[in-house]
Amino acid sequence: MSLAHLLLRRALQLPERTAVFHGTQPHASHAMWAARSAGVAQRMREAGLQPGDRIVLFMYNHPRYLELLWGAWWAGLVVVPVNAKLHPREVEWIVDNAQARWAFVTADIAAQPLAGLAQQVDIESAEADALLAPVPDARAVPISERAPDDLAWLFYTSGTTGRPKGVMITQRNLMTMGLSYFVDVDAVSPGDAIVYAAPMSHGAGLYAIPHLMAGARHVVPSSGGVDPAELFALGARLGPLSTFAAPTIVKRLVDHAEQAGLGPHDAARSFKTIVYGGAPMYGADIERALRVMGPRFVQIYGQGETPMVATALSRAQLADASHPRHAARIASVGVAQTPVRIRIADGQGRDLPTGEIGEVLVKGDSVMAGYWRNPEATAAAIRDGWLFTGDVGCLDADGFLTLKDRSKDLIISGGSNIYPREVEEVLLTLPGVAEAAVIGAPDAEWGEVVVAFVVAHAGAAITPEALDAHCLAQMARFKRPKRYELVAELPKNNYGKVLKTALRERLTPPRPTA
Questions:
Q1: What pLDDT sits at residue 161?
Q2: What is the pLDDT of residue 160?
């Protein structure tokens, strides 16, 4: 079975129901969505694309994202979703590594052709209109047969080597994620609606799967992003919305509600469920969110390697302030979701007792098939079927997982993963830079911001302005340091390794425990 069968079923069972909105304006019924996806699938086949070929979606949020996503699956293709905030040079590396044939883009982020592609289509062009023209009967376009372990979603996540790794997500992985949503996250009915404010290239877009399974509605804001006032208004017009949000987005929603004098009753008119993830939320922040907006939050923990599925902290658990361990629970990321097992292991992969801190391991049908064209990284990450997440945490006696830190020095800023090595390698290409070390500093709005410590060669004159301009020319804006510290030397141990702990100690205030 293919994920495309989910769309065909809804087109047959709920053909006239409006399925996709752009702002408050209807964009497509289920039948029209299917007809457009079947149409683009047929035309990509006619152009020579074969099942298993990769196509890139380098786009801001747009209603056509959904039509292209399901059109690719209809044709048996593999979607390579790319963060719209990436620099075109970074995207070209992904195109080359994925051996992608086509890309669909929004012109404002890809005004020039990306190298290595056979075809690049601006989604608002006449060419896109022709490709997405609906066929008379979607059933007449056969859905490519795909096995459960066939690749569906090739998600690139940054790695400590400075180059992203392609996470191979299969049809089975995404089906598992979709079904577990109903058990572990939230119930969904055909009258519900999900809004895509966070990037559709990441977790927000994947949550289209369970909402399509349930025949719910899909809303892309007119702004294409996060505008709290717009989201509150959309919910009031279209009915309470569900959404996926990084903690920084939750904070913006709560800030807006407070500033506008809105309370839990007002929030309930606009939002049914806000699923947050991408980073743990500090206890004080979720307590404030619950106080201002009421019990409409669910936390999930997952990774690109086990998309949206590892643990969940339910609405009831978050709201149960009378529980004697409530403070500890809201600081956790919840309990294992139904399809997976979670355990804590030491450096040799051996189980640790309850309460002891070690690496978080996950096993189940949501775990990736491996890393694309990278067997060494796959062997390091998956051992005996267990995904070694690189995250550090502990389990309590009731099975609640609390994350204590992140190995590999990962920085999460506004829900986006930033790996220091990648930033360091860019800094080191600027003439005059001898050494660089990058760490995350606590930030009230973004969770963390990037801070770079830079050592200049003797006699070299380097300024923060020059460093910033160099980073902007080489990488995505959101990855660049927000602060540059020019230092005479970096603290190191006896083996020459930079002591990032010592660098963190130079930053105040101390980093709070997640």
A1: 43
A2: 38
